[in-house]
Amino acid sequence: MPESTEPSILATALHWLAPWEFEPLWGLACLAALGIYWRGVRHLRTLDPGAPPTGWPRHATLLIGLTLIYVVSQTRYDYLAQYMFFPHRAQHLVLHHAAPFLLVLATPPRVLAAGLPAWASSTHRLARPLLDLLQHPLVAPLLFVGLIAFWLTPSVHFDAMLSRRLYQLMNWSMLLDGLLFWWLVLTPHGRLGPGRRILLLLAVIAPQILIGAYLTFSPTVLFDVYEVCGRAWPLAPLVDQQIGGLITWIPATMMSVLGTLIVLRQLRRGDSQGRRHPSSPAHP
Question: Residues of the chain whose pLDDT is less than 50?
């Protein structure tokens, strides 16, 4: 009888799920986000029992987003992201685009407000000027694309991949900026109307295409740090860079297109609700 392969499969799974470089802040942040969400959902049920419940699609969306963050930051995948260019670009696609996108969709403002502790409101008031600046309609898209370009500057990228402190700063900056941008453009009834939110989503498409195309079609290897440290897989450096460029180009662009469709759906839903519940005429 052939020996069972289950132990080896389990060992392989545990190997890949174990942290490459343990950074407890990532795990604590995921747990805190999950706690705030569930606290908000429970408080809303208590405060307004007649309100429609937060359905399982939102729960699943939040869990998928947090799981993606944990996988790319605290599992063996982080090793690949440090020793191959295209896994690194996939890591930033998750941290800057996919995971924040999912977290914002899963957590409406009323759930977030109900889930935050009391001291967070005073902290928010102190940080409000900085948030207003970072989410200004002119600053937000520049920062969103500018951070991608900054960390992909060859000299900056070289230093970031060789310094644990800079590497963590790079990843955290991508996640936090992604949360700020997607919250600004995907949250209905926020500081911007649907038209301006769609303009911001469209504004970041062309620069991302240019960055991705430059990486994809460059005839030379731009990031020699992966040669210095050694690559995780025996993949040709230029092919590695081309795949990374395509990841920067196509999926990131499609996220903006998907965001635009969601804003249009929000607008259509708001119009239909307005037709079902027209304002009462003023009495003479």
Answer: 1, 5, 274-275, 278-284
Q: Is the Cα torsion angle 271, 273, 276, 281 positive or negative in sign?
A: negative
Separation of CA 187 from chain center: 15
Dihedral sign for Cα atoms in the order 189, 194, 198, 204: negative
* Distant-in-sequence, close-in-space partners of 113: CB < 8 Å, separation ≥ 6: 40
Helix, strand, coil percentages, rounded to 5, for the chain: 80, 0, 20
In 118-201, DSSP assigns E strands to none
CA distances from 136 to 37, 72, 99, 139, 189 (A): 26, 29, 22, 5, 16
Question: How far, in Å, are 4, 92, 132, 157, 283 from residue 147 at the CA level?
Answer: 48, 11, 18, 12, 54
DSSP string, 51-83: SPPPPHHHHHHHHHHHHHHHHHHHSTHHHHHHH
Contacts within 8 Å (CB) and 24+ apart, 231-240: 231/83, 231/84, 232/79, 232/80, 232/83, 232/84, 232/87, 233/84, 235/84, 240/84, 240/85, 240/86
Q: Coil, helix or strand for 121?
A: helix
Q: Per residue in 109-147, pLDDT tens?
A: 888 888 888 777 667 677 888 888 999 999 999 999 999
Tell me if 197 sits within 8 A of 184, measured CB to CB.
yes
The separation between CA 125 and the C-alpha centre of its own chain, rounded to angstroms, equals 24
Question: What DSSP line would sit under 185-220, residue for residue?
Answer: HH-TTSSS-HHHHHHHHHHTHHHHHHHHHHHHH-SS
Token pair 């708001």: residue? 270
The torsion of the CA quartet 86, 92, 98, 100, rounded to 10 degrees, works out to 170
